[in-house]
Design goal:
The structure is a homodimer. Chain A is an alpha/beta fold. The first copy, chain A, has one domain: Glucose Oxidase, domain 1 (3-Layer(bba) Sandwich). In chain A, the strands form three sheets. A seven-stranded mixed β-barrel of chain A has the order 4-10-9-7-5-11-12. In chain A, helix 2 crosses helix 3 and helix 3 runs parallel beside helix 4. Chain A starts with 19 loop residues before the first strand and ends in an 8-residue tail after the last strand. The interface between A and B is large, with 81 and 81 residues. Strand 3 of chain A pairs antiparallel with strand 3 of chain B, so a sheet runs across the interface.
Chain lengths: ~240, ~240
């Protein structure tokens, strides 16, 4: 749909009209990290009875596609609402890590191998890195909820050394399931690198590409994290990046 | 902060690095529409006791800055999760309606008067219209929760006739408080024009201007509405950063 900008002859690098939703649906019986609260979504008023539809939403702060803020693991870390909104808009590289067996850890070597396949030039300071493990294809299969591909602490260190802004992954957690030490989370969050978890399988559309990525969480004050809407915007090749 | 794009000499019309948050904070004791559920945000695990911060979020679907989907008033209307994400990104005109006395209705004439003051050219098909009433300056004052400036049904009809995409307002509802017929909501939603309510007073920064507006709600399946993060991105006048 043309919303009227084209006639201005502004050259756009970002194709907003082709934006793709990377967000899992929030619904009853959706997958959650084992031990997290079971979300409950309930219609409380209906058009037939009350003339209006209204609902109650009851969910843990890390339900569905969501952001982890530094406050998740650090009492003095930045809370969710204090991350500037401009940080939630940025270019991202989508790494294809689906060559890993489900349940394995992503090492620095795996990241370098995936990076080498991207069409983009090198990772730039401030880039967002999105890891497609393929586990999102298995969303809804309970056995995967406690056995999914994760980023090792060493992998996290490599990304921190490259001064990325944020790291995303397409399943419930970026950490090895059941970790007691949470080394991957801590490595990223201690360096102010926020985390996006449970991206949907739509991420596969952008393997090895550079996209504009937006991931706006609800503004939960002093939050450790919160559900977000994550969106990929294709970058046009010809229109204006030269 | 330079995230590395400037050296590419891409011409940007939208200044993402200067994005401004238009979202109210979600917190206990925040204002809600009278009769709506009182939200409860509660830390359930803490770093000192559990090594991690986690929280529960309990809130009505129309709490804080939020979207109303057609499903809010029409059983066959589009639910929140079926509005394409590209519709949540678009250019908006910010109208200054703060000349109205708090509690008055915004008429078609008021809209035309405010439109005439904008720096932009005419309203275009697909534009988003954001109404700054000034009530957002009074956020937190309980007496305003049942007496705020609203859009009349005739005003809504005018905007529908101009084929706008969405209409936003900077207080709890776009409708006259206590309306039993909900004519303003129904006029907009029946025509697929979604509504953004409870924008923050930061909207005042952009009076009479055209901006890029983004308002991503969480992806509540079959939802009547849901909290969103609303963001204004300034449009550079000279078309570029180079």
């Amino acid at each position: 749909m043309n919303y009227g900008n084209k006639e201005k002859k502004i050259v756009y690098a970002y194709d907003f009209e082709s934006a793709v939703d990377l967000t899992q649906e929030l619904e009853n019986d959706m997958p959650v990290y084992p031990g997290d609260p079971i979300p409950v979504f309930k219609r409380t008023k209906t058009i037939s009875k009350n003339g209006v539809n209204l609902s109650d939403l009851n969910l843990g702060s890390h339900t569905g596609t969501h952001i982890d803020a530094p406050r998740h693991f650090f009492e003095e870390g930045t809370p969710l609402d204090k991350i500037p909104v401009s940080d939630f808009i940025g270019e991202a590289i989508v790494l294809d890590l689906s060559f890993k067996t489900v349940g394995e850890g992503i090492s620095p070597e795996d990241l370098e191998r995936a990076l080498a396949k991207t069409s983009s030039s090198n990772l730039k300071v401030g880039d967002i890195v999105l890891c497609f493990t393929g586990c999102s294809r298995l969303w809804g299969r309970p056995e995967v909820n406690s056995n999914f591909t994760y980023l090792t602490a060493e992998g996290a260190k490599l990304l921190v050394s490259k001064r990325v802004r944020a790291v995303g992954i397409d399943f419930l957690s970026i950490e090895k399931f059941g970790s007691k030490t949470h080394d991957t989370h801590k490595e990223l969050l201690a360096h102010g690198v926020f985390i996006v978890e449970s991206l949907s399988k739509e991420l596969e559309r952008f393997l090895n590409q550079r996209i504009l990525f937006m991931c706006f969480p609800i503004k939960f004050k002093d939050g450790d994290g919160a559900p977000c809407r994550a969106v990929a915007v294709p970058i046009s090749q010809e229109g204006g990046r030269d």
